[in-house]
Design brief:
Its main location: membrane. With about 450 residues, the chain is mainly α. It has 21 helices and no strands. The radius of gyration is 22 Å and the shape is globular.
């Protein structure tokens, strides 16, 4: 069977398996096994098992469950609540300030947790009900949280950046630093659009009240409480800064930094929030274990899938077709962006990175693009997939948090933020230094 026909059949099979609700890891593994056995016979079962386990046996993958454990410790503690209250103190009185403070909270919480779903859930549980109680439209309330949650895979420490670094053998520390400026640039674009949307809707600030004297009596108490909440968050931010310093300063490897970061975040959760009981710590471990197993299964299955595509010469055919395009390198980048965008519509970020990064990196280098700049471009494309159907993980998380908000309203509220991400990609294309300047400054 020629590679093109084989590729079409594999793609159809994968889509059918996912359409009937098969988990992504099992869908990738099943279609890979069927394709290998159909092409080469039962002897391929041996290579299937070896490939499945060999890839995730790399020591570098130890960093993934450690960063996930670090994020679980933050997500399971009241850190998100304290962060939200502190930012609301400073921004809540602006028109649309509460929505802007939610995006700010998402940005900082993303740096603490490294997970988009955790960010979306932690901030959304508090932010959405509060915004709706103050009269914000459902679309604005849901959309700003869904979009803000996507920053978890870009702002360091990011699990997807670790996976990209391992898959392409690039510096994880440099990848982390490359995501800082673009991550906060996207947060700024989100805030600008939120302010515009609130202005168009009539402006939203603090609720109107008539009990002026009561407000005067309680404002000092609220300020003190929110400042104390901010003080409780600062040690967690110090852990993130320390991790970045250890990585780009050459003090520790990503696995070592992740392990130390996980330990300190659990210790801080216990000390600051008095989480002494066994049950909260058990929940932290359970959540971290679930997400780690899910990601590692996807990585292993995606590696087998990549092996199957390579064995059937599908990968080489696609890469060759892209490389043979006699077009300007920016047209080539446009084609790659469309490909990544479509892939992100259907597959989770981890699967897309493991399957496509090793294929696309040689093409990117041949076109004289910076691999760390491309990592940021790739990640933003995958962020768009988190708030667009048919998968749109963040959309479903928001819908589960606020089930009385229709999925249509969540989607319509999120689409303008997807356009902000497209604008972010264009800005990075015009100004690549947004992603490369800080790593070059700090690491040479």
């Amino acid at each position: 069977m020629d590679p093109v026909t084989a590729g079409i059949l594999v793609a159809i099979g994968l889509v059918v398996l996912m359409a009937i609700g098969t988990p992504i890891a099992f869908a990738l593994g099943a279609i890979s096994l069927i394709a290998l056995v159909a092409d080469r016979g039962m002897a391929e079962l041996t290579y299937f098992g070896e490939t499945f386990f060999d890839r995730i046996a790399e020591f570098g993958f130890v960093a993934i469950p450690m960063f996930i454990l670090m994020g679980a410790a933050v997500a399971s503690s009241p850190t998100g609540r304290d962060l939200y209250r502190s930012l609301d103190l400073w921004l809540g009185r602006l028109p649309g300030g509460l929505a802007i403070s939610n995006i700010g909270a998402c940005s900082i919480f993303a740096a603490l947790s490294g997970s988009s779903p955790a960010t979306c859930a932690a901030i959304g549980k508090m932010g959405i009900p509060e915004m709706r109680s103050r009269g914000y439209p459902d679309g604005v309330a849901a959309g700003c949280i869904a979009a803000g949650g996507t920053l978890g895979i870009l702002i360091p420490p990011s699990v997807t950046m670790i996976i990209y670094g391992i898959a392409t053998e690039t510096s994880i520390g440099r990848l982390f630093i490359a995501g800082i400026v673009p991550g906060f640039m996207l947060a700024g674009l989100f805030m600008v659009w939120t302010l515009i949307a609130c202005k168009l809707a009539g402006g939203y600030g603090t609720p109107m009240v008539t009990a002026t004297e009561k407000i005067k009596q309680t404002v000092r108490q609220n300020v003190d409480a929110n400042l104390k909440a901010l003080v409780r968050v600062l040690p967690f931010l110090a852990v993130v800064i320390g991790i970045l310093f250890a990585l780009y300063g050459g003090v520790a490897t990503p696995s070592e930094a992740a392990g130390v970061g996980a330990f300190f975040c659990i210790a801080l959760a216990v000390i600051i929030y008095r989480m002494w009981q066994v049950r909260p710590l058990t929940l932290i471990m359970r959540d971290a274990l679930r997400e780690s197993v899910m990601i590692m299964l996807i990585i292993a299955a995606a590696e087998v899938f990549a092996y199957a595509l390579s064995s059937l010469f599908i990968t080489q055919t696609v890469a060759g077709a892209i490389a043979d395009l006699e077009v300007n390198r920016w047209v080539l980048m446009g084609v790659i962006n469309v490909f990544l965008l479509v892939a992100g519509f259907f597959l989770p970020p981890v699967a897309v990175i493991v399957m496509t990064a090793p294929i696309l990196l040689p093409i990117i280098l041949a076109a004289n693009f910076d691999p760390y700049w491309f990592a940021v471009i790739l990640t933003i494309n995958l962020e768009i997939g988190l708030i667009t159907p048919p998968v749109g993980l963040n959309l479903f998380i928001i819908n589960s948090i606020a089930p009385d908000i229709s999925l249509r309203d969540v989607l319509m509220g999120s689409l303008p933020y997807a356009l902000c991400m497209v604008l972010g990609i264009l800005l990075l294309c015009f100004f690549p230094g947004l992603a490369t300047w800080l790593p070059d400054l700090l690491m040479g």
